[in-house]
Amino acid sequence: MSDFTPITTQEQFDSAIKERLERANKKYEGYTSPQDLEKLKADYDKQIADLSAAAEASAKKYANYDKELADRDSRIKSFETASIRTRVAHEMGLPYGAGDYLKGDDEKSIQESAKAVKALFGTGRKAAPTGSTEPSSRDSKTEALRSVLQNLKGQ
């Protein structure tokens, strides 16, 4: 124990603990300092605030987007169904307005409904006459010739 010399100056103390301080500093090498962490935290907080504001703006912009798409899809489907009903009614020989009374969501069910409606209207309907069936006020000679011509055409 005779080698002990008391430290009396700051320079002696610094030189005595220099090696120990270097080892301690090497131990924490690669770690971020508290000041750098505060800077990083502030940057991240700012980015989070900016992104949150952008997300809220986007949410407001597209708030009704899903509802609008659903409304458009339902309108398109109703137009397609109406088109199918009109086409099937025309193919089955039904009157123009009969397509409104056809039921179903797909072509097969609409065709079945058209068959049922056609059965109600019947198939033996004759077309309306194009001319008058009332005798005309022409003279009897003209009418007699007309009836002879019609009889000749009929044979």
Q: What is the oligomer described by this structure?
A: single chain
SSE sequence, one letter per element: HHHHH
| Radius of gyration, taken over Cα atoms and rounded to an integer in Å | 50 Å
Q: Measure the end-to-end span.
A: 155 Å
- Structural category is mainly alpha
Sheet having the most strands: none
Mean pLDDT: 84
Low-confidence runs: none
Overall geometry comes to rod-shaped
The tally of helices reads 5
Q: Roughly what percent helix?
A: 55-70%
**What fraction strand?**
under 5%
Structure description:
- With 155 residues, the chain is an all-alpha fold.
- Among the domains are: 32-63; 65-121.
- The chain has helices at 10-27, 34-61, 65-91, 107-121, 140-154.
- Helix 3 packs across helix 4 (107-121).
- The N and C termini lie far apart (155 Å).
Please provide a brief summary of the model.
With 155 residues, the protein is mostly helical. It has helices spanning 10-27, 34-61, 65-91, 107-121, 140-154. The longest helix is centred in the first third of the chain and has 28 residues, at 34-61.
